[in-house]
Structures are given as structure tokens and as C-alpha cells.
């Protein structure tokens, strides 16, 4: 039976960055792994970030999330069947931050997957600087992911005060208690900068397993209010990206923006990766990538966001 690991976490927590560390651990031990990545939309921004892992012992697969819940489950099952024939020692899955945990466990119990795979580790990535105000739906996703996790890994601990990290853990624990009998155990929590991970830390994560938690399901996957807009070939400078992203998060006439991410080309600085939430903003130079910006949130004003980011009123690509 091949173990399947799930790297989960709410929007912007840092799943992809963590996966670079986690996957490398198995690759360096000579294991052959397959990584399946999918996002809340038709354009996958995370896949290019994982390309450095690709090689003889690591293959990357992508799944589009631009469909209803039933269609997505079928695509997920079909992709796992195909990956089951590739001879991987382990499969790692990075889903959207808006993820129904039941989908992972239920799919692995369907034939023929139940003869090939077993649930391995569920690792939940949580931003140490968790946003102060979360909607009930956001809190549900946050709590359900943590309730099932064998380990909770805090991100950006080097960027926030210790008291803020402690507050985040208190809020996470309280959110879990609202929907589940599961409880967070401090022995399951890893809170340190990721560039200081030791082999012992990674060994712990590689064997953390998962928690068979029951929880009150207050949000159905197909009933999620979250939306995603994708804009191809955006023409932005770093200055414009910073100003327009700030406007998206602070002007509610654009909607309730949760995440902005993507790639664009600045004539002076080259290819830039944009990654932003209400609590963090990052621009960094990267190698050439397909230019696209994704905006995720609820109650999105499609026309207004499109005009802000592209200067155009006609849709480039709308989900």
C-alpha cells in the first residue's frame, strides 16, 4: 500500500513553500514520489514554484479545481488511479486552501484506490500571524483541517511576536473545539522557522500520521461561497502590483478578498511572483513563468477587479 500525504492549510498559509522542504526530505532518501497539486480555479499558480523538485525521483501532476464538487471528486479519483500505475513510493497532495477534508479520506476508500493507497500523513500549515477576523466559513475550514492533522506546522514564525503566535494557537484550539471532539496536542505542533528544520524535525513530520477526527460539517464543499477570478497576461509593474493589491484588500467594493497570487513581468525587474493575503505581502524575483494573477474571495466584483488589474472591461478568464 502506497502512503498518500495531504499538505493542507487555509489560503495563503504557505503550503507550497513547506512542500519544497517536505518533498526534498523523501527525494534525498532515494524515494520516488509523485506530487499532485490543485488550486481553487482553472489556472494553477503553485505548480511552477515546485518545478525545482522535478527530476528522476519526483514527478509533478496538476488537477484543475474549476468545476463543481462532484466533478472535482471524479477528476481527483481518476488522477490518483493514473498515478497509482507510476510506481511511486509515496504520493504528496497539495490541495486548495478551501478543501473538504472528507474528500481525501472518502476517495482513498473507493475501489480500486482502497487496494493501492492508504492515508499517510496529514500536515496542516497555519500562519502564525493568523488574521484577527474570520468568517464562520473560513473558521470551519481552518478548524476541520487542523482536527484531522497528525501535525500542525506554523508558518512565518520569524515574522510575528511570540505572543501573536500563542494567540493564534489559542484561536485554532478554540475553533477545533467548536466542531470536533479532537483536541490540539502541543506535541503535534511544530513552531520554528522552516530554514532551521533539522533531520529530526522532518523525520517527525514524515511519520506524524493523521487524527481520525469526527466533526460537525457546517459547510458543504459544493456550497462554498468562495470564488476565484483568473487574469491572464497582466501588465503590471512592482509599484502597481503593490498599490493595486493593497486596494483590493482595503476597499470592500471589490469584495471580500482573501488571497491574491500569481506571476507578472516587470520591464525593469523581470519576472515577479506576487503572493498576498490581508496580513502579508510579498514580491520576489523568479524565473520566467506563465503570466497570470488569481484573486480568491467571496462576493467578488468581477468587472471592477478586472478593470483594476488589466485596464479592460472584457473578461480574460472568469471562473
Structure description:
The chain is α/β, with parallel strands linked by helices. It folds into two domains: 2-222, Rossmann fold (3-Layer(aba) Sandwich); 226-318, 2-Layer Sandwich (Hypothetical Protein Yjia, Chain: A,domain 2). 32% of the residues lie in helices and 25% in strands. It contains nine helices and 13 strands. The protein has a seven-stranded parallel sheet, sandwiched between helices. Strands 11-10-9-12-8-13 form a six-stranded antiparallel sheet, with helices on one face. Strand 5 (117-127), helix 5 (136-148) and strand 6 (151-155) form a beta-alpha-beta unit. Helix 5 (136-148) packs across helix 6 (162-179). The radius of gyration is 19 Å and the shape is globular.
Assign the CATH class of the largest domain: Alpha Beta
Which shape, going by the Cα principal axes? globular
Indicate the radius of gyration in whole angstroms.
19 Å
Please trace the helix and strand order, writing H or E for each element: EHEEHEHHEHEHEHEHEEEEHE
Oligomer: single chain
Intertermini distance: 37 Å
What percent of residues adopt helix (DSSP H or I)?
Answer: 25-40%
Which CATH architecture of the largest domain is right? 3-Layer(aba) Sandwich
- Biggest β-sheet: strands ordered side by side in the sheet: 3-2-4-1-5-6-7
CATH superfamily of the largest domain: P-loop containing nucleotide triphosphate hydrolases
Q: How much beta, percentage-wise?
A: 25-35%
Described by strand count, sense and barrel closure, the largest sheet is:
7 strands, parallel
**Average pLDDT metric:** 89
The tally of helices reads 9
Low-confidence stretches: none
